[in-house]
Design goal:
The chain has 479 residues and is an alpha/beta fold. Helices cover 34% and strands 13% of the residues. It starts with 26 loop residues before the first helix and ends with a helix.
């Protein structure tokens, strides 16, 4: 479940303390200890001659795991994924020349998705730089041209500590990718300082310890704004990467507001995607789970943006101008994107903010019972099996308007799906020609075949569905 993935950084007391050796540390050994103090647990990268002292220091540090890849592009993407999944600082290393240039895609991914990654690359010895052709690439200018900032060379052992301090503090507070290029002779040189790293836990200094209760009170009063006849506002809840770990609280708030939940690709799985209010991914890499969900975004009256980095698709018209109001939730002030106007900005742990808001709304909104309770949101004995709800005859796609969908959401009809374990979108399937097989039918029949079960989803329905099922079963047998 998404709630098992926590975005909160570890507390200072939980992190390993860098143990300084009795003998003087090299710059590489001191850097490895500094990474540990900053929350790094794994270092991804490729090996090479200009990186030997650094790799040796990482491998020798008991609190670091060295993950060696065949290609540095994979290492950079792994580091970006590590930062996204843990919320902590990630590290990638590469040697000079093509080793460094191979990092480009993963570093750009980290920068554009706003996650904390530090890239450390090796350079040839300082005495041979800028006039000898072998792997003499100006790495800092290369990455800086792509938007990686800071991206700089370490000119001397004395410059390593202050440059690393500035790079890591920038990465964790601004949630971005940074880069340092270190000549191999600097890596092997004795470290001028032997003290612990001063920029460790920089992000903990900007994270608030609690959500402002007065702000939550104001948002709670603003949200219901019940329209005539007790109708709900058309509210869409949008979740981004910084909302990972708050899935339970987000779902609770959505159920209270009868609000659909959509999410960006980097937050896929933030809530249980089988929940009837989960409408899927929005953006270039996916469409919401229902075809009509795209239209409910355009007809919504308010967007609750939970840790979303780019709200353009949620708030703007085709001209890129904001036409819908927003209430934004961010874990700290450094994460706030000021491109669009927000009615309210809630700063603090997003899960705690959603729970606090739901607690306040519970005393303000009318209470709705579960389906099947007399006098509540449905009549007693309403079926939970969608096959009983579907009209007889061939399955055909029913036209629906945004108004009708909002009516179903606000009427509580989504609750009928909470305990349903069948094919969720069964009633939306076309009456397919028997020569064609719907992907859902193939997967159902293959699953049934592999389990040795007789029959599958394809046996249900009319002749067209039966034909598709037999085709799928044959395909499964061939497989």
């Amino acid at each position: 479940g998404s709630d098992n993935t926590k975005m909160d950084s570890k507390k200072t007391s939980d992190r390993p303390r860098a143990k300084l050796a009795e003998t003087p540390l090299s710059c590489s050994e001191w850097l490895a200890a500094a990474l540990v103090s900053s929350g790094v647990t794994h270092v991804y990268g490729g090996h090479g001659g200009a990186l030997v002292p650094l790799v040796n220091a990482v491998v020798d540090n008991p609190n670091l795991t060295w993950v060696c890849t065949r290609n540095e592009a994979n290492a950079s993407l792994m580091a970006a994924a590590h930062a996204k999944l843990t919320g902590n600082l990630a590290c990638v290393m590469a040697t000079s020349g093509p080793g460094a240039t191979n990092l480009t895609t993963g570093l750009m991914d980290a920068a554009l998705d706003r996650v904390a990654v530090i890239a450390v690359t090796g350079l040839k010895p300082r005495a041979g730089m800028h006039y000898s052709e072998f792997q003499d690439v100006d790495q800092s200018r290369l990455f800086a041209a792509g938007g990686i900032n800071p991206s700089t060379d370490v000119p001397a052992p004395e410059a390593l500590a202050p440059l690393l301090r500035d790079a890591i503090s920038t990465a964790v507070t601004r949630r971005t990718c940074v880069h340092l290029a270190i000549p191999v002779d600097v890596q092997a040189a004795p470290s001028p300082i032997q003290s612990e790293f001063c920029a460790a836990n920089a992000n903990l200094r900007i994270a608030p310890t609690h959500v402002d209760p007065e702000t939550l009170d104001a948002v709670a009063k603003h949200l219901p704004a019940l329209r005539g006849a007790g109708g709900f506002r058309r509210i869409v809840i949008a979740a981004g990467l910084r909302a990972v770990g708050a899935g339970r609280a987000i779902t609770r708030l959505a159920e209270m507001l009868h609000a659909p939940i959509i999410y960006r690709l980097d937050a896929k799985g933030v809530v249980d995607e089988t929940h009837p209010l989960a409408f899927g991914v929005v953006g270039v890499h996916g469409k919401p789970g229902l075809e009509a969900a795209a239209s409910i975004i355009s007809t919504s009256e308010l967007v609750l943006s939970l840790g979303v980095d780019d709200n353009t698709l949620l708030l703007c018209n085709l001209a890129g101008l904001q036409i819908r109001p927003m209430i934004e939730f961010e874990p700290d002030a450094c994460a706030v994107v000021t491109r669009y106007k927000a009615d309210f900005t809630v700063i603090g742990n997003i899960g705690d903010a959603c729970d606090g808001l739901a607690d306040r709304l519970a005393t303000m909104l009318p209470q709705h019972g579960e389906p099947g309770e007399p006098g509540k949101q449905g009549e007693q004995g309403e079926p939970h099996d969608l096959s009983q709800l579907a009209p007889p005859g061939p399955l055909k796609r029913e036209e629906s308007s945004p108004d009708a969908l909002w009516g179903l959401l606000h009427g509580g009809s989504w609750r009928k799906l909470l305990d349903f374990k069948g094919v969720r979108y069964q009633s939306a399937l076309h009456n397919y020609d028997h020569r064609f097989v719907h992907p859902a039918t193939v997967l159902s029949e293959v699953t049934a075949h592999l389990r040795g079960e007789a029959g599958g989803a394809g046996e249900k329905g009319e002749a067209a569905a039966a034909g598709a099922a037999s085709t799928a079963t044959a395909a499964a047998a061939d497989a």
